Amino acid sequence: MAVETSVTSTDDVIDCIRPAVRERSEYVVDSPPDIEVKLNQNESPFDLPDDLKAELQEEVEDIEWNRYPNEQPTRLREALAEREGVSPESIIVANGSNELTYTFGLAFLDPGTPMVLPRPLFSLYKKVARLQDATLTEVPPRDDLRFDTKGLVTAVQKTGARLTVLATPNNPTGRALRLSETERIAAASPGVVVVDEAYVEFNSEASAVELMDEHPNVMVLRTMSKAFGLAGARIGYLVAQPPVVRELMKARLPFMVDRLTERTALALLRRGGLVEERVRQLQVSITEVVEALKTMDGVEVVPTQANFVIFTTPMAADPLQDSLIDRGVLVRNMGGYPELEGYLRVNAGTRAENKAFLAALEKTLYSSVSDGDA
Ligand SMILES: Cc1ncc(COP(=O)(O)O)c(C=O)c1O
Description:
CATH architecture of the largest domain: 3-Layer(aba) Sandwich
Radius of gyration: 22 Å
Bound molecules: pyridoxal-5'-phosphate
CATH class of the largest domain: Alpha Beta
Strand order of the largest sheet: 2-8-7-6-5-3-4
Structural class: alpha/beta
Number of strands: 13
Number of domains: 2
Largest sheet: 7 strands, mixed
Strand content: 5-15%
Distance between the termini: 70 Å
Shape: globular
């Protein structure tokens, strides 16, 4: 007997999609055309050096494109392990660290699983909680927008959180935890604590990798999209205890890192000192931006340990962002986070980009004040 189907329209198809998915929104980043100065995604302003690109062209010729890559990019895994001072078996390399957030969701979150997140936090983690129908408890920040360590300790214990995610330095605020605070939360947690260190290279505090021997519930998430300037290549990685890595691998899609991406990352890692030099430049760059912002009337700047900074001005964020776009400068409006209504975020650019941003901001603020329409 033929099975009768009631899926006869697009709406019917959409009804087949889980409510937990339908209720979400797509991850969309503003990308108006013709933007000359792009400072909205905490990317590095430095592309790969030309000679390294030329080297990669040779690699393209060398690759057997008809062959699958290894499930894990073995050589890159080894190189990253050496850099972190851990064994290769402690690492999972992924298609950007974003990809690993879904691995966490699949591995740790059943419907109703208790999960704790501090606020405000990189939005993807809340999305994963919602997609998996986890029971989410969010802990508001302190007045200075730092994570509330005490509140987090209470929340993880009260809810019995199986998964807690911290980000330090945190996006969107740029504020960082001290290692002792991360340790306090890990020690109090009945479940796993993922520490997202996407911006760790810009901060002087030690990595939570140091905590892993004493606190096996700690896992560290890293990316090559920021300090390494490889956002276009998509490489992130997890550092965890080898037995945990083996289990998490069971939840992963195979072949997520392609052959050229592996070689690109390896070529960059071989350039000893290049990343470190660029990090130093970006630390200077963000300090210069912060200092310039502080001199502007009515501009309030949140201290940052990352390559970006958030700030408020006497002008509302929406028209200010629009006006900066009109002047060819793209920054991020943080109004999507309730605590950050009125805030804009700008990342460190080249000297010329910073200058263009500061000039556009000054013009907008001063001309709007004199026009009386602030
Ligand atoms: C805290 C944080 N984690 C992860 C990511 C994404 O990293 P990836 O490019 O490796 O997916 C970002 C990107 O903005 C971020 O801010």
